Structure formats: structure tokens, C-alpha cells
Amino acid sequence: MPPRSPWRWLAPLLLAVVTTAAYVNAAPKVLVYDDHSVISQNREFGGVRTIPSLFRKHARAGTADPSRLYRPVAMATLALDRTVYAGHARGYHVSSIAFHVLATLLLFGLLQALGVPRAAAVVAALVFGVHPLHTDAVDSVFNRSEVLATIGVLGALWWLWRDADAPRLRLRAVAPAAAMYFVALLCRESAATLPALAALMLALLRPRPTWAAEARRLAPLALLAVPLLAYLWLRQLALPGAGGGAIASLTDGLGAPGALGERLSLAAVAARDYLKLLVYPSPLRASYEDYAVRALGFAVALHVVLCGVAVATRRRAPLVAFAIACYYVALLPSTKVFADPAAFAERFAYLPSVALSLALAWALGRLAARHGSRPVLLAGVALCAALLPLTLLRNLDWHDRISLWKADLEVTDRDWRSLLNLSEAYLALGRNHRVMALCERGHQVAPRHGGFHSNRALALINLGRYDEAEAAFRAAIARDPRPTHWANLARFYALRQRYPESVAAFQRALAVQPDHAEHHALRGEMLLQARYDAAAARDEFAAALRIEPRLFTAREGLRAAERMLRRDAATQPASAPAATPAAQPASPPATTRP
């Protein structure tokens, strides 16, 4: 065996350095969007001690958002970050960048194992590493689940390829791949495609002469059903509904006329638009709530052409055929065919974007075969020069809530989530007139969404326009009678010293509040603000904290009740509730994506 070159580590080092450079400004000291609600504001999110509990609940547990997302390993990495970095936001981002670098290196290793020339593999992996479409998965630490699942899939494929020339896959190849598959599934649901990707990779890139021989070679892949079943069992234990909600995801809404056709149409246009962003990554957005079917005929024609290319090249250029098949198979679980909560999101393209690197590696390999490595390296420099600045600029948008949602609204003003979240960001800064303008626009875009009326009411309170604020709270409740809106109205009445009405509104909030800890905390607020009974309020807040020790509203309420008791003991005030200081109505939590 010839000695290994001492320069063999230069290419991986270059990939790691350049990929890190693309995200060098992606580690701010703040958490925004999902990260803020799932980590910063989440009463149930903690450090490593909470990791066992993560396997018994959905990924958004502790927020106001019920979900069918079961990602305990991905959440465990965030819990580990919380312990290691003492809760500092920058640490979460550093870990996400490191995971992305690892995914890039694994892709490079897989490409080399598949026989791609080294220079072509470096450039193809580099494009994956610096591509701006990946900012949604890397800059948002909650979305690192996409990166972690891809790491598991790439690692398993690379390991299985080691047995590609054997007449039958051996247990020593399948068992480690099964372990990686199980961990990847516990990071994100898209990893479920691994068995299909492995079968396609082996069948297309190392085909057997007969179908029977191919079936014998691939038969051990059936062992991958074991981790899949184990994942579904854990999911069933943690999430309500058949299959841990998986059956509902597949069947919700299918009884409506045309529902299946609508799902397939959304999947077709989404697959086209992901391809467009992989080739031309602009504009990029954090929210796509206004995403709809457009130019369906063109999307279908494009997919027919690509499938035809895959069939035509399966023997002459099998890597191209595998790239096309990989794209569609990897994307399928994140489409509306499987009722994903979102119709379109840039993070969903993270694993499917491996297909772009596969196709690019084939093209650069052909270029290297004809003209050597120099033009390949020049192509890499040109691609890096084009993509890396876009990634650096997009990272800046993720530095705070204002810049993120303003960037979205520069692309479209029809996305209700961007309007709502920007209005909440401005509300926190006291820019009340700007809040009202955004809410007025939100009323036109999503007239049935109560959040715009609630935010407008809070801005009106800050401006001293109380009658209009009351009407806005009522409008929010009429559209969405959730506990938050009733509680905000109750706090408003307490602020205005309208105590009987405040009690009535608090009771309406309590009637629709299913969370026991929140119920006690809300009752404590009522006793403190509307009935001026600090002793009873203290008992309610303490009861809430016995159920959930990290409940912020209960901790703050308990402090307020104890302060009031100390003041009352010192001054011995009259028993009647005079003009007591009432808490300012709190802004409802930001609407978050699944």
C-alpha cells in the first residue's frame, strides 16, 4: 500500500475553515424567533438534568404551541449547550455552526468514497458548506434538528457504502448504520428516508447484474425497520394519537374535497421552488405563511423532465440519477403530502440540498477528467466568491427580531406572521405608532387573527387611548377566545380599577386555561390585581411553582404578593381595594412556527 500523503488533511481543513468563515458572524448574543420561545421563554427547558424528560414530550413542550414534533436528541443537544455555556445565547450558535461544519465534512467524505475526484469533492462539499439557503437551519438553533438528522443520514450512507461491493450487506455494516439511523430519527422526522436513500445509492451506483442478486444484497436493509419501529414506539409514548400523531399528520384534512390534490400541488411547486433557491438563493425569508400554488404546470413539467433525465442517465451517469432521486426522496417527508405544519420553509431543503452537491460533483468530475484539477478549483473559487457574501449578509438578518422581520417584509407585505412578529418587536421597544400601522396591515392580510388586535390594544394603552384599547381587546377575543386574550383584558380592567369586570374576565380566562400551573398563576393574578388578596394570591403562586418551578409568571407574582404583604404589614391599609398598582397587561407571546 502506498504511503498516505501528508497533505491528506488539507482538504478537510480547508472545508472546515471556509465553512466556519461563512458563519463567522452567525453567533450573536441573542436568540430570535423559535429559539426565543422554545429556549429563552420556555418554562420547561433546562440543562442536562432535563434530558431524560425530553423523551417523554414534544419538542415545543413548555410553550403555548402544541405540536407533533418529536425530536428529543436534537433538544438534548440544546440542553447540553445550556449547561456548558451557562445559558449564554452565543454558545448555542457556536454549537450549531460546529454541527454544520461536521455535516459538510461528512458530505466530503461520502463524495470521496463514491469515487468523486478529490478536487471535485472539495468544491461540491464547499458549496454545501457556504450555501446561503442553509442559514435558516444553522442560524436558528432550534432548527439544528435538520443539521443533526443530515449528519446521521450522511454518516449511515458512508458506512453502508463500505459494503457496496459485497454480495450481501453484512451485519457489521448495517448495525452501525441502524444506530445512526435511530439517533437521526430522534433529531428530525426527515431521517426516515435513509433506507430508501441507501437502497437507491447501492442499486444505482453499484448495480447487480440481476434483480434477484440486487434483492439479496439489499435484504439486510430490512434491519433498519428495527430503529424505525423503536422510534415510533417512543413517539407513541410521548405524543397523543395513533403513531404519536403520525397517522393524524398523514390523514388530517384528507376528507375534504380536493384535499389530496391540494397537497400534491403544494408539494410540486415547493419542490420546484427549493430547486430555484438552490440555484439562485434569493430572496430568503424566515416565514412563508403566504406561500401558495403558483405556476403549477411549469412545476409539473420540470419534475417530469428531471425524472426523465434520471431514467436516461441511470447507466451512463448513475451519480446524476442518484442525485435526482436523492432530492425527491429526501424532500418528501417535509412536503404537504405528509401534512407538515408549514407548506414551505428553507430549512426543509437542508438534507435535499445534498443532491445539488452530488450533481455538482459529477459535473466537476467530468471537467477534471478532461482538463485537470485547475479549472475545477477555479470554479470552486468563483462559486465560493458568489455564495459566501450572501451567507454573511443573511446571517446579519438573524441578529435581532427587527432586522429578521423587516427583511421578510421587504420581500412581501402579505405574510401575516412577519407582520405580527415585527409588531411585537416594536411593541417591546415602545414604538407604538409603528405597532398600530403594522397591525392595521395585519387586519387586512389576516382579518381573523386575534393577535393583531391584542398588539394594537397594548400599543393603545401605552398611548393612553383606553376606550379604543378595550374595543381592541374585545375584538381579539371575538376572533380567538384564548386564555391570553381574556387575561390581557382582565389586566386592563384591573389597571383601570374596574375590579368586578376584571374578576369576570379572569374567570373567563381560567375557564379555558387547561394548564394546571398556568391556572394557579392566573388565579393568583386575579386575587392580587382585582381582589387585593395578597395572602391568597401568594398561596396560588406557590401552588403553581410546586407544579412547575420554572414558571416565570408565578415567580414574579409570588414576589409581588410578598412585597404587598410586607407593605400592608407596615402601613396597615384599609381592607377595601383602593387604587392599587396593577400590572401592565403583558404582550401575548409571539406566534411561532412549527
What does this protein structure show overall?
With 594 residues, this protein is mostly helical. It folds into 3 domains: 18-397, no CATH class; 413-480, Alpha Horseshoe (Serine Threonine Protein Phosphatase 5, Tetratricopeptide repeat); 494-594, Serine Threonine Protein Phosphatase 5, Tetratricopeptide repeat, CATH 1.25.40. Helix content is 66%, strand content 0%. The chain has helices at residues 10-22, 34-40, 51-54, 72-84, 89-113, 118-130, 135-139, 144-161, 171-185, 194-205, 211-218, 225-238, 246-251, 259-279, 296-313, 318-331, 354-371, 373-397, 401-411, 416-429, 432-445, 450-462, 466-479, 483-495, 499-511, 516-530, 534-547, 552-571. Helix 1 packs parallel to helix 6 (118-130), helix 20 (416-429) runs antiparallel to helix 21 (432-445) and helix 23 packs antiparallel against helix 24 (483-495). The two termini are 52 Å apart. The relative contact order is 0.09.
Brief descriptors of the model:
Serine Threonine Protein Phosphatase 5, Tetratricopeptide repeat, 0% strand, mainly alpha, 28 helices, disordered C terminus, 594 residues, 66% helix
What are the SSEs and their pairings?
Elements: H1 10-22, H2 34-40, H3 51-54, H4 72-84, H5 89-113, H6 118-130, H7 135-139, H8 144-161, H9 171-185, H10 194-205, H11 211-218, H12 225-238, H13 246-251, H14 259-279, H15 296-313, H16 318-331, H17 354-371, H18 373-397, H19 401-411, H20 416-429, H21 432-445, H22 450-462, H23 466-479, H24 483-495, H25 499-511, H26 516-530, H27 534-547, H28 552-571
Helix pairs in contact: 1-5, 1-6, 5-6, 5-8, 6-17, 6-18, 8-9, 8-10, 9-12, 10-16, 14-15, 15-16, 16-17, 17-18, 19-20, 20-21, 20-22, 21-22, 22-23, 23-24, 24-25, 24-26, 25-26, 26-27, 26-28, 27-28
